[in-house]
Every structure is written in structure tokens, then in C-alpha cells.
């Protein structure tokens, strides 16, 4: 079979299986039926007359042939993404473009303290701002579809250039009338006596909460789950449960919505971090490099020199 005839969709599925370590996890990331991925890869292996996957314990890994196809896909996709960015520059007639992923809880401050002054210095640069979970962010940076990202979570992901900064403490967010509002700090064991508000499993804050509860031998069982911080704040403000965020995320709501932030008395809560991420191989334009430096200076607490 000639290389040009290899189906791009099947090789993309193969690449994602290699990245995520299994067909089911790749299917969840792509929002595709696992059976469809399995069929496509079985058909590709038959046409190649080579095994592309092998099982190791509970994980599925790529064979040598599978790795070659996946690496070629990644390189080709990165070149196409670079070409698309160049074409986008021409379409917008701007001085370049930057695609950045920013965690929901950090959008307001990044826009106010980084994007706003950056745009004053680089008014012709087109900025594409996205938001989403850490796993997808890492995948998009690896593929070359995102230049840089600001994420929140327990650890910086491997394989990328990463600068980490303190973000804590994580707090219980409650109404002023809530019993916990009187605490200076609240223990994890005290939280289980009240309705809890969780975030989607891909949120860094939820990873932190799960880790804290697990260390205390408890299960985090929320009464509500949200995929927007604004929803969690609204539920907390209505007195329907305890939300969990850093004070930086909920700063405005604390003053305007009768809410209180009570620090969680746990090492993990005190040591929460955000991460600035980029590919170690991707070369930045001068504008992108300047934006990266501004982000580093902002999260490091150093004022930016204009």
C-alpha cells in the first residue's frame, strides 16, 4: 500500500492511542466510539500486514511499526499547523498570531495583567484564546496546535517545557452564614459533613481535592458537579454547598456576593501550583517570546518592564 493512500483518520487514531496509552482513553479524548477506533486500527494493520498495537498489562502500546506511523503523523501535523498559522497571519493581515490555552480560573487576571499590556505593545498580533482541561492542552501543544498554555494542577506534565508557580491556598468557598465561615482553617475531615460542589474530573482543582480526600482515607462525593467556575460560585452563593477554589479565582465574588474563603488545612491545599507550558521544540516568534516572558514575570510576581 502506497504511503499516500494511508488513511489519515486511522493514523490519527493510532497516534492518540499511543499518547493516551489505550483505545478507551483515546476514544474519550476524541469523543469517538472505542469500537470505531478498534475497527479502523484493525483494518489499517491488515492493510499494512504488520501488527501496530500490543498489550502490556492493562495498557496498549504501539509496536515499532505503529511508532513509525505515529511519529510521521505528528511531524506532518506539526508542519500543517505551522502552515495554517502562517496562512492565518496573511488572512488577518496581522503581525503574526499566537494561540494560547488558559485555565478557566485564571482568564480574568491573565487578560487584565498580561494580554492587555501585551496588546498595547503588539497591536497587530492576533491572539487566539482557548480554555480546557490539562490533558487536552498537553496534547494540543505536542501537536503544535497551541503555542503556550497556563494550566492548574498537581504536577507539571512531562515532555514539555514547564515553569511552575505557587497558587495556593485552596479554600472552601461558602456563604457568610455557613458554619464553616467561622473557621480560620478547615480540616478535610470537617468538609464531609456538608454538601460539596465538585468540578469536572479534568479540572486541576478537582485533582487536588481528590488527592486530599484520598490521603485522609475519604471519598470525595459531591452533591453537585460543574464544568464552569461561575456555576460553582452560584451554587455556593445560593447556600447549596461548598465550592473549592483559590482566592485568586473567586476574588471579585468574595466582595460582591457575600461569600467567604476558608483555607483548607492540608499540605496539598497550601502547595497548589499553576504551570506555564510550551513545547521544548517549538520556536517562538519575537511576539510570542515576549508574551511568554510577560506571563513568567506575572506569575513570578515580578513587575513587567515596558
**Helical percent range?**
40-55%
Number of strands: 12
Placed side by side, the strands forming the largest sheet appear as 4-3-5-12-6
CATH superfamily placement of the largest domain:
Periplasmic binding protein-like II
Low-confidence region ranges: none
CATH fold-level topology of the largest domain: D-Maltodextrin-Binding Protein, domain 2
Q: Give the domain tally.
A: 3
In terms of structural class, how would the helical and strand content be classed? alpha/beta
State the separation between the terminal residues, measured CA to CA.
Answer: 57 Å
> What is the alpha-carbon Rg in Å?
22 Å
Q: Which architecture of the largest domain would the CATH scheme give at its second level?
A: 3-Layer(aba) Sandwich
Give the ordered list of helices and strands.
HHHEEHEHEHEEEHEHEHEHEHEH
So how many helices?
12
Instruction: Give the CATH level 1 class of the largest domain.
Output: Alpha Beta
Plain-language structure description:
The protein has 306 residues and is an alpha/beta fold. The chain folds into three domains: 8-87, Arc Repressor Mutant, subunit A, CATH 1.10.10.10; 92-165 and 274-301, D-Maltodextrin-Binding Protein, domain 2 (3-Layer(aba) Sandwich); 170-271, Periplasmic binding protein-like II (D-Maltodextrin-Binding Protein, domain 2), CATH 3.40.190. It has twelve helices and twelve strands. Strands 4-3-5-12-6 form a five-stranded mixed beta sheet, sandwiched between helices. Helix 1 (8-20) crosses helix 2 (23-30), helix 1 (8-20) crosses helix 4 and helix 5 (107-121) packs across helix 12. The chain is globular, with a radius of gyration of 22 Å.
